[in-house]
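Entry type: protein chain
Record version: 2
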Amino acid sequence: MSEQVKIGVIGAGSISDMHLKSYAASDKAELVAVCDQNEERAKEKAALYGAKRIYTNHEELLQDPEIEAVSICTWNNSHAEIAIDALRAGKDVLVEKPLSTSVEKALKVEEAVRETGRKLQVGFVRRYASNTELVKTFVDQGDLGDVYYARGVTLRRLGNPGGWFADKERSGGGPLLDIGIHVIDVLWYLMGRPKVKSVSGNVYSHLGNRANVEHLSFYKAADYDPSKNSVEDFANALIRFENGASMSVDVSYTIHAEKDEMSAKLYGTKGGAVVEPKLELVSEKYNTMLNILPQVDKTTLDFGEAFQNEIDWFLKVCQGEEETRSPVEDGVEMMKILCGIYEASEQQKEIVFEGSPNMI
């Protein structure tokens, strides 16, 4: 591979800006092409970030011999298909989360990675945040002891983006797959990525997108249509792992809460850690409980920094300098958890995994 990895970005929606901006800022990347079904949008992004070519379908981009690696920033329901096509075309892949919209599709991507020998990184961006790295150091050094419980909360009181986000056919699900996945994954990663044993959960669709609410603004997708919404408002879950640890999760696009809430916390036999909303460690010494405040530049997630770190790491992976922190196997395990929550709610029973990846 050349000194600069030659990149194609597939999908020119809002999240693509984070990829394009990060590639443009790296001296290890050269932006070759942008692809989007909307030709004008592809032209706009290519001009803005200095890409040389545009395409309107991913098959044409993947036939471009100059492109060595791709970022996939399309609708969730197309992630697996495009990733498999890219791998088989000889490209390395960074695919936005979630890896797919089903365990079956995720397993097909994993098979394609094995068959082609190409590299694939799942876009679990919070793994690459500096505060996540710091907490992981304390966990890995044993300062928290055995981490046996984690709790994640991502509640928006008003925040259904609409558009494809609210279309279950394209998105695969609502807040659980869109924003819940971030907090579930970063906690699971910090817990040591234990295998999931069982999942129970509830999914609710009572409030819709609340287009009636006035005087408050929120992010809306480009194709926002308040009359269309087929995803959940709220989900909660209890996830049990084979090592005996567990995690609880609450996530919403809209809920009758007094304010938005973001929380990610770990609890171990020797100490605890707060990743969000503000970095903090909890310990005990000389029979005294201690709240420890690490001295860092930013005590909460810097999304731009995390994305730059993620892209920089992916480029090192492409050049053979590093192994990815978010491999395809983790994308599969995360789909087992997420799909398990939906199925547990639908069947109103706990979903138990017995070592088979094909349970769901």
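Comment: Residues 356-360 have pLDDT under 50 and may be disordered.
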